[in-house]
Structures are given as structure tokens and as C-alpha cells.
Amino acid sequence: MLYFTHEYFLALKRQKGINSLPEERKKLRSNVEATVNEFVCKMPHRKLKVRGAFKASVFAFSVALGVNFGRIYRLIQGDPSYVKAISLYCAQIVKEQGRMMRRVIGYCYKRAIIPGLRIDFW
Predict the structure, then answer these.
(1) Residue 76 class from Cβ within 10 Å (0-12 exposed, 13-18 middle, 19+ buried)?
(2) Distance CA 72, CA 68 (A)
(3) Cα 66–69–71 angle (5° rounding)?
(4) CA–CA dist 85, 53 (Å, integer)
(5) Helices 83-110 & 53-78, crossing angle to 10 degrees?
(6) Residue 107: CB partners within 8 Å, gap ≥ 6?
(7) Sequential DSSP letters for 95-117
(8) Which of 44, 47, 71, 111 is the most interior residue, by most CB within 10 Å?
(9) pLDDT in tens, 75-105
(10) Comparing 19-33, 47-61, 64-78, 90-104, which segment has the lowest mean pLDDT?
């Protein structure tokens, strides 16, 4: 008699999902390792150029953003059909950031954190 655990079932289900993917999709992988490698290349002697947690996080975010923009640029240069999809994605991000900014500014205005602030420009 065989007993199967829930973890075994989930692993089997995941493996079946991976096997059902087309071959060209199986070759894709996340580029986290490459991003980290390029991040390390920006640091001489593997030391950050900045001090402090906030500055270090801003530096890491900026490097990752630059690396990914470079990848997007090379992708567009290779196949211009991606331009529409990427521009729609970027427009959605800008729209969401605008909503977040409105909420933050509205919160500051309601709480009188920023006295005299007027929110009539949108």
C-alpha cells in the first residue's frame, strides 16, 4: 500500500506543468543571477560606494533599474514588435504610481502634514 503526502502531490503537479510547456518556453529563466552579477560589477572591490541602509537600497534599485532598461533596449533593438507591449506596460505603471501619489498627497493634505498644500492640479 502506498501513501502520498500533499507535498508529493504538489511536486508531481508542478512537474507535469513544467513538462507540458513548449520547448522554447522551457529555455527561458529569470535573470536574477545576471542582475546580481551586474550589480556586483558596479562595486569596486565588492564594496558599496554609499553608506547607510537607505542609500544602499536606492543604489541597488537604481542599478537594477538601469540593468533592466538596458535589457529592454536590446530587446527592442532585436525585435521592434515588442515596443507596443512594453509601452502599454510602462503606461500602466505610471498610471498606478500616479494613483499612489494622489493618495499620499491627499493623506498629507487631510492630516495637515503639509500646511497650505492645494490639490487642484489634477
Answers:
(1) middle
(2) 6
(3) 110
(4) 35
(5) 150
(6) 113
(7) HHHHHHHHHHHHHHHHTTSSTT-
(8) 71
(9) 778 877 778 877 888 788 888 877 777 777 7
(10) 19-33
C-alpha cell at 84: 507596443
3-state DSSP call for residue 118? coil
Predicted local confidence at residue 122, as pLDDT = 45
What's the chain's average pLDDT?
A: 77
The cell 509601452 sits on which residue?
Answer: 87
Kindly provide the residue ranges of all beta strands, DSSP E only, lying in the chain, ordered along the sequence: none
103: cell is 493618495
- Cβ atoms of 103 and 97 within 8 Å: the answer is no
Predicted confidence (pLDDT) per residue in 7-26, tens digit = 888 999 989 988 888 887 77
Picking from 93, 67, 32, the residue whose alpha carbon sits closest to that of residue 59 is: 67
What does the domain layout of the chain look like in residue ranges? 29-78, 83-116
